[in-house]
Amino acid sequence: MNIIMLGAQGTGKGTVAGLISKETGFPQISTGDIFRQNIKEKTELGVEADKYISQGNLVPDEITVPMVKNRLTEDDAINGAILDGFPRTIEQAQKLDEILAAEGKKVDLVINLTTPKDEIIERMLTRRVCPKCKATFNTKLHPPKVEGVCDDCGGALVQRDDDSNPEAIRRRLEIYEEKTSPLVDYYTQKGVIKTEEISLSINRMGPDVAKDMVEYIKN
Ligand code: ADP
Ligand code: ZN
Q: N or C, which end of the chain is more exposed by having fewer CB within 10 Å?
């Protein structure tokens, strides 16, 4: 089953994707994580991608699309994957449809997460990530058991550079509105979207949504 996580920054896409991945065995493929890994290792792709990411801009399709295509051909993704952070534009969605169609596959489910804007900005500022195993925490909502230490692997938690830069946060939310939110219509027309609200105001957080989605996927 090929699943896409949709939703603005800070809605909890990564958290929900990680939980669904654990329960279903489908790998979580996060384009942001792949870029950050490459930036850390100073690969050619990483150096190029960082020019865009540090400013809060999208990395061009010439770099992003082949990277995703290659990742989808790896063994663990044969029966499906959970895409987290891709597609982000209508063009990327069309290219993904082509990539999957060539293998006789399609997008089976799009999980669209929504969260009120004030909660989103707060969550981005309080987000902490484990560069080693990619787990995500939040100093207020979902703190690690020991401050600054990853529950899963013991790695040191950090704040992403683009999460500590308010200008980059603003830019990313703007791009989401302009370029990514049209994907809601795109996948609604295909009849594969499920929209789920994650918000403190309704006491429904990532793990609650993940649990419902796993049940839906398994049935
Ligand atoms: P967020 O959704 O919180 O902005 P991600 O980890 O998904 O974070 O992505 C971090 C950055 O990586 C983005 O701001 C963008 O620059 C780049 N990026 C990730 N996925 C894509 C994509 N599908 N297309 C272009 N750029 C991407
Ligand atoms: Zn970790």
A: C
User: Residues with beta carbon inside 6 Å of ligand 1?
Assistant: 9, 31-32, 35, 52-53, 56-59, 64, 85-86, 88, 92, 172
Q: How far is CA 140 from CA 119, 144, 177, 212, in A?
A: 12, 10, 26, 24
Write phi, then psi, for 199 (nearest 5 degrees): -160, 145
Cβ burial of 208 (10 Å; 0-12, 13-18, 19+) is middle
- DSSP, res 107: -
**pLDDT at residue 166 in the model:** 85
Look over the chain and give the mean of its residue pLDDT values, rounded to a whole number.
Answer: 95
Longest dimension (CA), the chain: 46
Write the pLDDT tens digit of every residue in 107-130: 999 999 999 988 998 899 999 999
Q: How far apart are CA 60 and CA 77, in angstroms?
A: 24
The residues near 203 (Cβ < 8 Å, ≥ 6 apart) are none
| Three-state secondary structure call for residue 39 | helix
User: Two tokens at 76?
Assistant: 């663990």
pTM: 0.93
Ligand nearest to the CA of residue 144, numbered in listed order: 2
